[in-house]
């Protein structure tokens, strides 16, 4: 099926559709050996597309939900030789990438895809995609602390967006709290730093939900394909 060139470039993860249009207009894109500067140009999977002299891959789009174990890097490679998320997908022909990241010692739900356009949209802060974490925290988290989490905290000099916070369980003898935290930002070590700002250390962290998706039926290290309805639902979240 023929599609507009800028859409194919965006789907391949080259750049956003608007940025792809700029590349075309600047004469940086070739189709079957010819420079193309017309935005209405349509291409198919049989066409060879070069951007700045590099071929782009128009492989079939794939979408997976992965239960990332602790001790795994959210990347396609690691210069220290540590295990990475793509090690679990060696049987999958498509070249998958994680949507965002989970810390090395954080487990839970991670989306894997080769749909660069959808991945970039899901990570964009303006769409406010909910991410639900359960944190095992050292200390007895108080109601006032939950209130501060809900209002937003200053982390690395910038206030976090309002969150949803719920105390799930406490072990007063061991001084351990289990807290569910829902955020839509994706700042570096954000959940851990939010608790640190309150004086608590996170001993264990797991992402249990992403948007409307959860880990039902999966154990650590497992993955499954997203259904067509789930892919459609994610795309609808980031429309407009």
Describe this structure in words.
With 240 residues, this protein is of the alpha+beta class. It has three domains: 3-55, Structural Genomics Hypothetical 15.5 Kd Protein In mrcA-pckA Intergenic Region, Chain A (Roll), CATH 3.10.290; 63-125 and 213-237, 2-Layer Sandwich (Alpha-Beta Plaits), CATH 3.30.70.580; 130-210, Alpha-Beta Plaits (2-Layer Sandwich), CATH 3.30.70. Helices cover 21% and strands 30% of the residues. The chain is built from six helices and 17 strands. It has helices at 5-11, 17-25, 116-123, 143-151, 190-197, 228-237; strands spanning 3-4, 29-31, 34-35, 42-43, 49-51, 54-55, 63-68, 97-98, 106-113, 131-138, 154-155, 158-159, 164-171, 176-183, 201-210, 213-214, 223-225. Strands 7, 8, 9, 10, 13, 14, 15, 16 and 17 form a nine-stranded mixed beta sheet that branches. It has a four-stranded antiparallel beta sheet with strand order 3-2-5-6. β11 and β12 (158-159) form a beta hairpin. α1 (5-11) packs across α2 (17-25). The longest helix is centred in the last third of the chain and has 10 residues, at 228-237. The chain is elongated, with a radius of gyration of 21 Å. 28% of the residues are buried.
């Amino acid at each position: 099926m023929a599609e507009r060139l800028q859409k194919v470039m965006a789907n391949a993860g080259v750049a956003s559709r608007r940025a792809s249009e700029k590349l075309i207009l600047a004469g940086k894109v070739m189709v079957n050996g010819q420079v193309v500067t017309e935005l209405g140009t349509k291409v198919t999977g049989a066409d060879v597309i070069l951007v700045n002299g590099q071929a782009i891959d128009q492989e079939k789009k794939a979408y997976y939900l992965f239960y990332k174990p602790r001790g795994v890097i959210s990347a396609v490679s690691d210069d220290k030789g540590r295990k990475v998320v793509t090690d679990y997908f060696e049987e999958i022909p498509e070249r998958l990438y994680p949507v965002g990241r989970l810390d090395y010692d954080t487990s839970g739900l991670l989306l894997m895809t080769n749909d660069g356009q959808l991945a970039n949209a899901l990570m964009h802060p303006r769409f406010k995609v909910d991410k639900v974490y359960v944190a095992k925290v050292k200390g007895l988290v108080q109601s006032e602390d939950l209130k501060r989490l809900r209002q937003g905290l200053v982390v690395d000099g910038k206030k976090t967006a309002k969150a949803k916070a719920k105390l799930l369980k406490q072990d007063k003898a061991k001084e351990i709290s289990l807290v569910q935290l829902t955020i839509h930002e994706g700042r570096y070590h954000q959940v851990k730093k939010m608790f640190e700002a309150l004086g608590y250390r996170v001993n264990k962290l797991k992402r249990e939900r992403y948007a409307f998706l959860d880990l039902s039926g999966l154990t650590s290290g497992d993955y499954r394909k997203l259904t067509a309805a789930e892919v459609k639902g994610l795309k609808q979240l980031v429309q407009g």
